[in-house]
Structures are given as C-alpha cells and as structure tokens.
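Our consortium's second objective concerns turning raw sequence data into structural hypotheses that experimental partners can test. To show how far this objective has progressed, the report includes one record in full. It was chosen at random from the queue rather than selected for favorable results. The single chain below, 179 residues long, was entered without modification.
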Amino acid sequence: MSSAGGKGARTGFLATLLLLLALAVFFYLSFRTVVVSGHSMEPTYHAGDRLLASKAYWLIGAIKRKDIVVLRDPVDSKGYIIKRVLALAGEVVDYENLGSDWKLSQGDYTVPTGEIYVIGDNRAVSEDSRKFGSVPVSSVIGKIVYIAPGNAGMSVLIFVCGFLMIGLLWFSVKLLAKK
C-alpha cells in the first residue's frame, strides 16, 4: 500500500469515526427516553411503556394540537408528566375541558402567550391543566416521536442503532483494506 493510499484510508476512517461521534452527540442532545408511570394516558400508553421524546423541532415539527409531550411536572419539579396538547397559545379551551374551579361567568379561557393547555387521555384519573392551568412551552422536555412498549421495544431500537453503527465501522475498515 502506498503512503498516499494509506493516508487517504486513515482520513476516511477518521472521518467516519467523527461522523459517528457527531451522530451520537446529536442523538444525546436531541432525544430523551422516558418511562410511563401511572394511568393518566391510558389507553394510549400504559405504565412501563418506554417513549422517545425529541426537542429537535426543526426535525420533527413544532408542537401542535393533539401532540403528546413530556414536560416538567408543575407540581413536582423533579419529575415529568406525559400529556396531550389540547390547546395552544391564543386558543380558547372548551368549557368541558376546564377545571371545576373555572366558572362560566368568567367567560372563555384563552391560553396565554407562550403556554399550552395539556390533558391526559384518561381524563377520569389525569391531573392536568384542568388542575394546574396552562403550562409554559419552556417546560416541555420534548415531543413523543417513538413508542417502544415495555423494555423489549427499546432493546430493539438500541440493537438496530448499534447494528447500524457497527455496519458503518465495518464499511470503513473494508475501505481501508482496499487502499
């Protein structure tokens, strides 16, 4: 192997490693796994389901009505909650979806600027905006982009990602061997 060919192969291998590192950092910063606890999102999600949330809105789209989001718990700042977006800033919330403390005489409830109104799918047991009001968009940890029921689903996702990374490394080594 000539010295120019060896140098090019090493450069290609290093470029692949840097690409893998960049992808790993991107996924680490843009995605987060969360585990469902409780029954407030049944029948959509059940306790123990693993979800993948992302705050890379340029990639997955902005938060909109009916999206499911993970946000910091307004009651327990150390925890998080998973809820469905019912209304966005500037939108009026239907009276039936307001908390029992909201009186009809108060008129319409409009979600304040920079906030969203969230509600659980299992409304009978959900503690949501009906209890604590609308929440700041800044408290959103991410929007759900992938559902992996139980531990098996997340294991499959990790296996597939690992397999792809190994495949890229193998391909890089093969390129090195040809040069």
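The partners drew two points from this record. The chain has a mean pLDDT of 82. The helical segments are 3-30, 57-60, 129-132, 150-178. Both points have been shared with the crystallography group to help prioritize constructs.
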